[in-house]
């Protein structure tokens, strides 16, 4: 009987599937965009004077300060920080921040591509993109600000976690911590405007959406965590949900990197959930050693880092290579025509990429799979999903097994 899918899981997945089909058939994305995009675009244009007012204080120090601050709260930073959180013994915090990050990434990027609102126009606005990550971010749409959204949610949840660990925290420390988080979020918002990456409406959108998501998550996080570690059919449900979420993603007005980011983080959550569900009682329960305690001193934690980071990077490389080999063969065996926009050289071609970009603007992803006449599908999406799923699985399963063997 354990293999029977619970009613709520079947109903939830069917609801998502129905929404995908219905929203595609009735062009929900285009209808919402036609209402919101003109208004947001006007706000961006009228807000240019605010951006220029802030940029009047241009200085080399502020250029470096806000560029570094943006890197500290970027998705690549969180992606590198989360494995260390798992290996430090704070498994629950790491799980929750990973799932919350994925939820923020999906929600924020969906809204970006639904509204398809522009970023501040340059010139007259000066845009400072100091890193490759920032240059890719600049290719996305503006509303809402992902940096603001992610910072509010993750710092807010971290604050909640710290307060929940110790019941008798002095009120002055609580006020100080809350004030620091507010100041940090404010600096992130001002920095995004100073760097020319966002207008005021984008920051306000990220602020409102972030507070809404955080409030929602604080009500459901215990239920989500209990399902991940103790639920039934967790792996099969999450695989189905991950697959559907790729097709539930809206089609932007013009192609952006947002869908690629969503695919990567969907793979991360899939790997984390499946790995934790299988190894919770071995490596991720609440009684595991935590860093800065006698059971896990700083030297042992440094050893974990030195061994763990190269291992997960190796798994990421191997997962990508394996997916690049298996998926085209599997697609060929099933009679599914595929192309590649960059990963598989034999399937890459300028005409194919051009067709891909044209298709991305024609309708919803699932609608294109079942209802369009396109000749091929981009295999890179599946490769990216498996690559990051493999990386995340190694963080919570393979690497902790190595730690156990090495007594770390």
Walkthrough of the structure:
By secondary structure, the protein is mostly helical. The chain has one domain (19-405). Helix content is 74%, strand content 1%. The protein has a two-stranded parallel ribbon. The protein is globular.
Supply the key terms.
single chain; 408 residues; mainly alpha; two-stranded parallel sheet; 16 helices; 2 strands; transmembrane helix; hydrolase; transmembrane
Number of helical segments with 4 or more residues? 16
Count the domains: 1
Characterize the biggest β-sheet.
Answer: 2 strands, parallel
Order of helices and strands: HHHHHHHHHHHHHEHHEH
If you compute it from the alpha carbons, what radius of gyration comes out, rounded to the nearest whole angstrom? 22 Å
Gross morphology: globular
- Cα(first) to Cα(last) distance is 39 Å
* Low-pLDDT windows of residues: 350-374
Biggest sheet strand line-up: 1-2
Share of β-strand residues: under 5%
Task: Classify the helix fraction into a percent range.
Answer: over 70%
Q: Strand pairing plus helix content: what structural class?
A: mainly alpha
SS elements, strand count: 2
Mean pLDDT: 85
Organism: Tagetes erecta
GO molecular function: sphingosine-1-phosphate phosphatase activity
Membrane topology: Multi-pass membrane protein
Domain Phosphatidic acid phosphatase type 2/haloperoxidase: 94-218
């Amino acid at each position: 009987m354990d293999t029977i899918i619970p009613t709520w899981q079947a109903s939830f997945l069917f609801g998502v599937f129905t929404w995908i089909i219905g929203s595609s058939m009735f062009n929900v994305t285009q209808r919402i965009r036609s209402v919101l995009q003109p208004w947001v675009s006007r706000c961006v244009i009228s807000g240019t004077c605010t951006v220029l007012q802030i940029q009047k204080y241009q200085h080399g120090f502020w250029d470096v300060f806000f560029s570094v601050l943006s890197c500290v709260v970027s998705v690549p930073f969180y992606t590198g920080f989360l494995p260390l959180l798992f290996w430090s013994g704070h498994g629950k915090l790491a799980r929750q921040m990973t799932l919350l990050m994925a939820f923020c990434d999906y929600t924020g990027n969906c809204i970006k591509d639904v509204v398809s609102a522009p970023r501040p126009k340059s010139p007259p606005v000066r845009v400072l993109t100091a890193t490759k990550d920032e240059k890719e971010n600049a290719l996305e749409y503006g509303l809402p600000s992902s940096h603001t959204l992610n910072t509010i949610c993750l710092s807010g949840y971290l604050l909640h976690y710290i307060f929940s660990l110790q019941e008798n925290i002095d009120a002055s420390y609580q006020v100080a911590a809350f004030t620091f988080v507010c100041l940090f979020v404010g600096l992130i918002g001002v920095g995004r405007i100073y760097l020319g990456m966002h207008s005021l409406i984008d920051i306000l959108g990220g602020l409102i959406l972030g507070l809404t998501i955080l409030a929602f998550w604080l009500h459901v996080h215990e239920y989500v965590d209990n399902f991940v570690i103790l639920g039934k059919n967790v792996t099969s449900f999450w695989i189905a949900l991950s697959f559907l979420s790729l097709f539930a993603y809206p089609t932007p007005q013009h192609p952006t990197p947002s869908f690629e980011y969503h695919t990567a983080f969907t793979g991360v959550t899939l790997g984390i959930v499946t790995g934790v569900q299988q190894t919770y009682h071995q490596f991720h329960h609440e009684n595991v050693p935590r860093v800065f305690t006698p059971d896990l001193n700083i030297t042992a934690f440094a050893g974990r880092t030195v061994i763990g980071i190269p291992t997960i990077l190796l798994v990421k490389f191997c997962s990508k290579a394996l997916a690049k080999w298996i998926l085209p063969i599997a697609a060929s065996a099933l009679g599914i025509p595929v192309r590649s926009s960059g990963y598989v050289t034999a399937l890459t071609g300028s005409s194919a990429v051009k067709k891909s970009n044209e298709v991305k603007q024609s309708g919803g992803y699932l609608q294109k799979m079942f209802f369009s006449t396109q000749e091929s599908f981009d295999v890179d999406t599946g490769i990216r999903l498996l690559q990051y799923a493999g990386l995340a699985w190694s963080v919570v399963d393979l690497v902790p097994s190595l730690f156990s063997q090495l007594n770390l």
